[in-house]
Amino acid sequence: MNIEKIVKEIQKINGYTGSAVLNKSGEIIYIDENDAVDLAFASSLFNDTFRALNEASLDIGFSNLIRLETENEEGMTFLIYGNHNQTIFTIFSPQGNISLAKMVLTQALKKDN
Fold first, then answer.
1. Closest to 3 (Cα-Cα) out of 19, 14, 26, 25
2. CA distances from 19 to 31, 57, 64, 65, 101 (A)
3. Hey, CA dihedral for 68, 110, 43, 16, is it positive or negative?
4. Nearest to residue 43, comparing CAs of 99, 108, 91?
5. Does residue 36 sit in helix, strand or coil?
6. Would you call 34 helix, strand, or coil by DSSP?
7. What stretches of 5-95 adopt beta strand conformation (E)?
8. Which of 5, 35, 78, 90 has its CA at 20 to 30 Å from residue 105's CA atom?
9. pLDDT confidence tier of residue 85, bands split at 50, 70 and 90
10. Phi and psi (nearest 5°) for 84?
11. Which letter does DSSP use for residue 26 in this model?
12. The pLDDT value given to residue 112
C-alpha cells in the first residue's frame, strides 16, 4: 500500500481531520496530526479496540473484521479499516463525506491484501 498516496486522497475528502496508519503489531508507521486531538493516543486506543473486536468475531465463528465506524455526540466520525498488515484510523468532522472516505479506504486495503 502506498501510504502517502492514500493519505493524500483521504485529506481531500470534505471533513477530514486527521489519520494514522499502524502496522499489524500496533506501531504507528504514519501520522497526520492536528491540534484538536492526540492522534497517536486515539489511534492506538481504537486499534486495540478494533483488534479485540476482531478476536471476538473469530471466537464466535465469524470472519475477520474489515471496518469499524463510530460517531460521537458531537458528530465526529471515527473510521478504522484493517487487514492482516495494517490499520488505517481516520477522523472526520460532522460535515465529512463519510461515504467517499469508506470507498477510498476499502479500495486502499483491498490492494494491500
1. 19
2. 6, 25, 22, 19, 12
3. negative
4. 91
5. coil
6. strand
7. 16-23, 28-32, 67-71, 77-82, 86-92
8. 35
9. confident
10. -70, -20
11. S
12. 61
The Cα 87–Cα 28 span in angstroms is: 9
Residue type present at position 16: Y
By C-alpha distance, which of 107, 73, 74 is closest to 88? Answer: 107
Phi-psi region at 75: left, alpha or beta (left = phi > 0; alpha = psi -120 to 50): left
Q: Are strands 86-92 and 77-82 parallel, antiparallel or unpaired?
A: antiparallel
Residue 74 has phi, psi (to 5 degrees) of: -80, -5
CB 94 within 8 A of CB 15: yes
User: What tens digit of pLDDT does each residue of 40-82 get?
Assistant: 999 999 999 999 999 999 999 999 999 999 999 999 999 999 8
pLDDT for residue 8 is more than 80: yes
